[in-house]
Amino acid sequence: MLKQELSLIGKILTLEELNNFMIENNYYSIHNDLSEKEIQDCLNEGVIAFENKTQDSIEDIYTYIEFELSDRNKLKITNIFEM
């Protein structure tokens, strides 16, 4: 289920590059769900969640992407999982 998303592990991306990748893979933009302050909180915590547009479950399942901040606000993707 996370085949495309798992390919991100180890890559270094800007937040917008990550967001665009997720949009291309049927996720909602983080800018639809989160305020700028909430996005900054995610960056500080090292994890951000995306909601899939095509999920069939009654419960909301999010894809969480863990990262380390590297040079100039770039994200080094370290882990991806669903909950």
Oligomer: single chain
Q: How far from one another are the termini?
A: 13 Å
Q: What overall geometry do the principal axes of the alpha carbons give?
A: globular
What class would the helix/strand composition place it in?
alpha+beta
Low-confidence stretches: none
Order of helices and strands: HEHHHEEE
As a percent range, the share of helical residues equals 25-40%
Largest sheet: 4 strands, antiparallel
User: What is the number of strand segments?
Assistant: 4
3D architecture notes:
With 83 residues, the chain is of the alpha+beta class. The chain contains 4 helices and 4 strands; from the N terminus they run H-E-H-H-H-E-E-E. A 4-stranded antiparallel sheet has the order 1-4-3-2. It is globular. The chain starts with a helix and ends with a strand.
Brief descriptors of the model:
4 strands; 4 helices; alpha+beta; 83 residues; 4-stranded antiparallel sheet; globular
Topology:
Layout: H1 3-6, E1 12-14, H2 15-24, H3 30-33, H4 36-45, E2 47-51, E3 62-70, E4 74-82
Antiparallel strand pairs: 1-4, 2-3, 3-4
Summary, kept brief:
It contains four helices and four strands, in the order αβαααβββ. It is an alpha+beta fold and 83 residues long.
